Amino acid sequence: MTVLDHVRRYRRAEGWRGLTEFAGLLALDNQTHDVPALRRNADLVAELFTARGATMEILELEGAAPLVTGQLGTDPRKPTIGVYVHYDGQPAGPAGWHTPPFEPTLKAGDRTIPLPGAGDPVDDDWRLFARGSADDKAPLAALLVAVDALRAGGAEQAVNLVFCFEGEEESGSPHLRDYLERYRDRLRADTWLICDGPVHHTGAPQVVLGVRGYCGVELTVYGPGHELHSGHYGNWAPNPALRLAQLLASCKGPDGRVTIDGFYDSTRPPSAAELAALADLPPVEEALLGQLGFAAAEVPGSRLVDRLMWPSFNVKGLAAADVGAAARNVVPASATASVDIRLAAGNDAGHMIGLVRAHLERQGYLVLDRDPTDDERRTHPLLARLDGEIGYPAMRTSLDEPVVAHLADAATRAGGRQALVMPTLGGSVPLSYLAEILRAPTVVLPIANHDNNQHAANENLRLGNLWYGVDLFAALLTAEPPRTAGPGGPAGPA
Amino acid sequence: MTVLDHVRRYRRAEGWRGLTEFAGLLALDNQTHDVPALRRNADLVAELFTARGATMEILELEGAAPLVTGQLGTDPRKPTIGVYVHYDGQPAGPAGWHTPPFEPTLKAGDRTIPLPGAGDPVDDDWRLFARGSADDKAPLAALLVAVDALRAGGAEQAVNLVFCFEGEEESGSPHLRDYLERYRDRLRADTWLICDGPVHHTGAPQVVLGVRGYCGVELTVYGPGHELHSGHYGNWAPNPALRLAQLLASCKGPDGRVTIDGFYDSTRPPSAAELAALADLPPVEEALLGQLGFAAAEVPGSRLVDRLMWPSFNVKGLAAADVGAAARNVVPASATASVDIRLAAGNDAGHMIGLVRAHLERQGYLVLDRDPTDDERRTHPLLARLDGEIGYPAMRTSLDEPVVAHLADAATRAGGRQALVMPTLGGSVPLSYLAEILRAPTVVLPIANHDNNQHAANENLRLGNLWYGVDLFAALLTAEPPRTAGPGGPAGPA
């Protein structure tokens, strides 16, 4: 009987304990930005790992949510694996939650069922609904159960673990660089695993070597100084909502290609190895179209994984005056679009924001970083405000790193089917900070189901994915990885 | 001493009483759609006119706000003037009111001052702030003071008055046709005066012979069945906010010209007499640009009055997911634009909405009048919902009607400066219904200041404009108008 067999037997018998503990963690409001609420999450996370014998530390920088660090195993002869998870979640705001976001609710299909107790059967297809259930408290729960399972079976850790549990990922990790630079001595590892994001759409385990980066642009176009009666002035007064529409339409064509000058120029094209890995991935598009509720991709016939190799331009929100029953017959005073740009390898956030600014300026706009003054209103027919938000850069670890095959093997054993190796995930996690500052290869190991409603209402984790996470951590904890050199030279404990 | 001299002396001494009465009327919430609140307004309006000896009737149709009708003077030898006013107001919702919309507040500049009492001075430039102060309770207040002033001076009415006070104008007058058809016998007049809208931007009195009509289009474009994580799916999933922007941009060019096929075809071009009247109007554009807070019109250098002769396409609201601090990193599930189309003479509302629909269809959209089904989502890449709202048609009374010169003369005497004759107002009032059903020439006689913030926060009436209204009604009540034939044949009491 292998270690994994023992772990599976353990979690079938005792997994309900882990589920109960997980539900307790999900009951804590963890909306990003809310530092007092996030401190309560940090305290509980530290407590749960301390109970397993880990040495935990809650670090705080001024104005930041805590960073929870710690170690489990400190044998200098063993390699060290770093585990990054973020315990904060997206705002729970959007309407449409069927059950409150911080009242973890287990469901079999549409039916709410109680959490299982000792001896109760547990179905892999049941789902636990709560903000953070998938993104990103799931790996914490999985790791806790994995450690319990190994202890119960008397298995020895083949590696040391170092933890980096962030509380600001959903805010764009504004203090992560500072934390890592300040505490890098406590965060030495041979490899960093970023446990975030979903597994492959087919349900296959996956090892992801990169992420897209992120920057945001909030764009406001100004019309009259205040809303005007659309009868008296409509057709004569400039309409900022129409102008915003024209600007956005000028940024991306109906063919899905961004038409901002230079938008694709800095992108590092996929390498031959990456293209080969992409070609190996099974097609998912037909299945996704049905699941996600649309008939064709933005670029009809395109493959999702191919599109992720290039920067995106996504309008994530629009607002001007009111629509529907609240609409009034006005020329709006301003119109705002919130845009997120996912960066591909090679893109610099500040540079990309600059390209958007230059695009506006080429169309005659005076582009401000604040509301216009009366004088600017009098003298500039085209006025816009651009607020840029610089997130993290994209990052792609080389397919040639020896640890890649080791991780794919562990994921294959844990998942019971061949793990897929993806050159990049679509989402953005601060992989590049860890790679740069901690000088170790970073690899994303997701466990959540792909249809987890991440960032939206009714976020959920399929229990089968939680168990996959348990098995994956158990496999990683009990197999020695190959020693590797980080991108910036030798890494690991000094 | 002329009748007007008497009236002016009266209102200087006793105008405070009218102001107090006006404030009482403005203290009643009159937001359109709220029938119980509107009934309270109707009751008070009827009571105020009954107190002046008018015979008033409050009429109600199922599901409609009341129509207040009445007569003041019933001498069959005298001509009859109809006075239309609407007592409902726009929703008071928009943020930015400095004082509550239904707590009428008198201000000298930015300073709140108490309502004047007997003997207190009253400045023409003071303003009374409240929803409805200008649009459109002001003519009611002015008419009440005019009747009081004439009574006090012992002047005899040269004309009979018939009243039509509507409670649903800001909702698009959904029952006005029914009311007029049902009660046309009580609404016989030789001329109908529509007392609504602002005077000329220069402050000159004006007589307006037409209005633009109105129709609305609410347009929703669909993306994924629910919001998607913009990292995982942005650049691959279709973005409804961008598509909506592209659609809107395809409806109107940067030159301000609507590019929907056939959009201008049904418009009756201005007649030679109208072109001459337009040419006579003083330029206001430079002054307006400064007041309204923008540097150039939508079509730079265009004249406001010229633009009003053609239908408009005005985006009055936009919404998709969220912007600002509430923005989430999603591909929105849908995006909505609320558009109002002001109609020019010749345009039919249903036809214009049909042109928008055809425009969408030509771009490949399946256009629905409801949300798409799952099956439609699976089979149609381009999905939109179009909800059309049919308002009233535009209407322009001929410059050759004999009553036009009579009204211009009264307005000139009341205003103390040459009245302007405008072929059309930019706004929409149900002039065509009165003209068609009541078979009499209809002319708009506005009294409010043009900078009254109509439909927006901080709606206000300049007191000088209230007094102009008093003088105007006094002039009209004491001068016999020429007998005219309505557009459909002889009109007036049978």
Question: What is the element layout, followed by pairings?
Answer:
The structure is a homodimer of 494-residue chains.
Chain A lengths: L2 H24 L8 H16 L4 E5 L7 E6 L7 E7 L18 E4 L2 E3 L13 E3 L8 H16 L6 E7 L9 H7 L8 E4 L11 E3 L1 E2 L1 E10 L5 E2 H4 L6 H12 L20 H9 L4 H8 L11 H4 L6 E8 L8 E2 L2 E10 L5 H14 L3 E3 L5 H6 L3 E8 L4 E2 L5 H14 L4 E3 L8 H8 L3 E3 L15 E3 H15 L7 E2 L2 E2 L4
Helix pairs in contact in A: 1-3, 1-14, 3-14, 4-13, 12-14
Explain what this protein looks like in three dimensions.
Chain A is an alpha+beta fold and 494 residues long. Chain A folds into two domains: 3-212 and 395-490, Aminopeptidase (3-Layer(aba) Sandwich), CATH 3.40.630.10; 213-284 and 306-390, Alpha-Beta Plaits (2-Layer Sandwich). The first copy, chain A, is 32% helix and 21% strand. Chain A is built from 14 helices and 23 strands. In chain A, the strands form seven sheets. In chain A, strands 1-2-7-3-8-20 form a six-stranded mixed β-sheet, with helices on both faces. In chain A, strand 16 (366-368), helix 11 and strand 17 form a beta-alpha-beta unit. In chain A, helix 1 crosses helix 3 (138-153). Residues 485-494 of chain A have low confidence and may be disordered. At the A-B interface, strand 11, strand 12, helix 5, helix 6 and helix 8 of A face strand 11, strand 12, helix 5, helix 6 and helix 8 of B. Strand 13 (314-321) of chain A pairs antiparallel with strand 13 (314-321) of chain B, so a sheet runs across the interface. Chains A, B: Residues 210-363 form the Peptidase M20 dimerisation domain. Chains A, B: GO terms for molecular function: metal ion binding; peptidase activity. Chains A, B: This is Peptidase M20. Chains A, B: Pfam families: M20_dimer, Peptidase_M20. Chains A, B: Keywords: Hydrolase, Metal-binding, Protease.
